[in-house]
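Below is how a single chain appears once it has passed through the pipeline. First comes the sequence as given, then the structure the pipeline wrote out for it. We keep one example in the README because the format questions we get most often are answered faster by looking than by reading.
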Amino acid sequence: MEELLNPRHPLDKYHQPQLEFLAALPESERAEHARLFRLGNATYRYQQQAQGEVTEEDFHHWLAGLPEKLRVVMERDGFEASKHSWPLRRHALERRDLGQDAFLQAILSPEDWAYHQQVAHEH
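Resulting structure:
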């Protein structure tokens, strides 16, 4: 099962249940579920790069680009409530030239990257 999860989840408390889930599936369903885990694991690894790096300046820069109704809500909630949100973390990373697409393309297999691109363009 281990070979199905590359990239693996960096935390064993999530990696082990992923392995167990895949092992319990009929073989015909494993590849698709393993792909979804790999995509999620890669995205998690990308987001972890922002841990402790999101600043109040990032927050205000991010707010400036939000639609008005959403901006009002996020301003009301404040930096502390928002600093762990995935959209703000991605914004902070991209401000530092650490783009999600480039990171995912580098960490995923060419097949998983192509699948990610296909799904992203469908939505």
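The two ends are 30 Å apart (CA to CA).

See the next section for the split statistics.
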